[in-house]
TrEMBL record:
Keyword tRNA-binding: no
Creatinase N-terminal domain location: 191-326
Gene3D superfamilies noted in UniProt: Creatinase/methionine aminopeptidase superfamily, Creatinase/prolidase N-terminal domain
Organism: Phocoena sinus
Domain named Peptidase M24: residues: 506-720
Protein's name in the database: Xaa-Pro aminopeptidase 1
Amino acid sequence: MARKMNRTDAPRHSLHPLARRKERRDAGWDGNADGSRGVGRSGGRVGGCLRVGGAAARAYVTEAGEAGLLPSRRSTGDQLVCAAVTWAGVRHRRMAASRKAPRVRIGSRGPSHLDGFRGCVREYLGIISRKIPPVTCPGFSLDSGRANYQDFQLKNLRIIEPNEATHSGDPGVETDSRMAPKVTSELLRQLRQAMRNLEYVTEPIQAYIIPSGDAHQSEYIAPCDCRRAFVSGFDGSAGTAIVTEEHAAMWTDGRYFLQAAKQMDSNWTLMKMGLKDTPTQEDWLVSVLPEGSRVGVDPLIIPTDYWKKMAKVLRSAGHHLIPVKENLVDKIWTDRPERPCKPLITLGLDYTGISWKDKVVDLRLKMAERNVVWFVVTALDEIAWLFNLRGSDVEHNPVFFSYAIIGLETIMLFIDGDRTDAPSVKEHLLLDLGLEAEYRIQVLPYKSILSELKTLCASLSPREKVWVSDKASYAVSEAIPKDHRCCMPYTPICIAKAVKNSAESEGMRRAHIKDAVALCELFNWLEKEVPKGGVTEISAADKAEEFRRQQADFVDLSFPTISSTGPNGAIIHYAPVPETNRTLSLDEVYLIDSGAQYKDGTTDVTRTMHFGTPTAYEKECFTCVLKGHIAVSAAVFPTGTKGHLLDSFARSALWDSGLDYLHGTGHGVGSFLNVHEGPCGISYKTFSDEPLEAGMIVTDEPGYYEDGAFGIRIENVVLVVPVKTKYNFSNRGSLTFDPLTLVPIQTKMIDVDSLTDKECDWLNNYHLTCRDVIGKELQKQGRQEALEWLIRETQPISKQH
């Protein structure tokens, strides 16, 4: 995901970043032959894919008429030799293949160092938008599907159609034909036809917005709600697609720049959020739409706050935001999966610490403080937390499709199927008991939420209010008359859920101890097996899950395991599939970001390691990340501090070296709930996050990502706890973090002499805690080899004074 800011196109080098930038410019990676800047799909180069000797290269054609090849920065088979060629041989650019391949120049003096080159084109050369006439350069020809130079040949070249070509959004970003983008031309044609179909819209619309979420604005969604991925091919957890009559654009954040570029075809323009030259969605619409346009969106899956902002900008420019009740993607998605309806899990007080009835009492007290008579709950994790129930309707997220409306004397739960008929659920919700009315739960059909809400609001007195989050869908919000609507960014359930009680905190500690045992087993296994060869990203991820499944109360993973080696590590939310699966080696950095759902807690941990000898540059980058991690974890800050004020702590050491990462530093973590939860977090974005409080649980995960080379991230889950300080200004108190994750950080990757004495002490103390706490559990479970590994990996470090 995240990549080094302002260096997105740089080829891999071991040079210092500033030197790499100059080398990249000198080698011709910055800009097209005509002097224009390559900007991916929206202009500049467009391209296809060429595979040579097992490695990938991208063919391109510029608007100025230049044709050529951009090599990947990795050779996985025979050595890759690739060069840019122009139509008339006007300009010959020197290109370098991977660090293991010889350098080649196509020009009047011909190539050099061709000994040992045995590669041939194994698949195809794709050229988008046009066919190339014969091209000649001194000593090199491309004609009739055959390229010759002395004793080496590139054979079997064929021109393919634009929609077949594998495409990369940016020059210099490696394209791998094994991760081919989805062909979307026909889908977009059908969608644009639906935008004009009067069976679905009252008048034709000129643009259609496709957000990531579902009707509950969830970050992680069920397959039936993956509309944006279906239309575009991009399946990251964050992004918004907008389709007009002539354009298709995708906005996503820094976590997904590389992934989106790989997964989308040439029909799409990638909009990189957070970069200064990227327009907002509303500004882009204003710039491309004809006067008086109508922009449509499904009101059930668009958040209210998004609607208000978009509608205001469009209205000021003479356009209109229109609710389209028939989801247009659903109309063209002929094999759309059904919405899941799986059994529910009940949780007792040992896990929750408080009964659902007591939670309702607390909620009603908050409602009374605001003079609110009804509260509408739409977020799935809030409903699960409120009723002490869990589900599995969304993979890796223990939630279930439902809505709830809580009144001062009424409780309504909107849920499909016969799930509440299960004896354990009936007993848990006290459905068969003659409870007093204020605790009696009315179970209603899931899809009846809007009609029931409108009926309820019709009987309100003029001064009665209904509480709803402004992140609820526009359809839900509009079902409440404006005069009765009371909106807020975060609900009282959201805030109460974030502050863990003692039972939840202790459960999270137990979960992380079990998780650490599993990871010690994994890393011990990897250290033995990787040198033998044959361990892949997928087999390592499978082994991690195998060890976790051996632990008590394991339920599921908390997200798809990010198991990435070498260049795949630079894709922050990379998930290995057979087409991209790389073998772990002694020569590359390995990053694994993984977690689990246990009945007593949710885990999320990232470790970066090397099974051979890391380079000095890799150690330098790792050490900068470690410094940032320690700076956050050891921070002491006043009560009431918001998370964004701590974000720079994690980046300071990276900034000192001219490095950075394009994602937040930390997110909230649920208790046997979603691995990402609000309202707390640590991020450079100054959104209206709630202040950090004792009992909140967040992650501490700075990183650094070198495109085409490696990724580094160190992540612990930490608990916010009170701390005593020498003084107590204004009697406000202070807070710090207590690590729940207890997994060794590989010292081989550290430039120890770059650490301060305090940083060395922090790491040694952390490793001592890992050895004491996890060591006892490994002994208890009889895992002797993993214990020996733990002892080796937690030996104290010291600087060479």
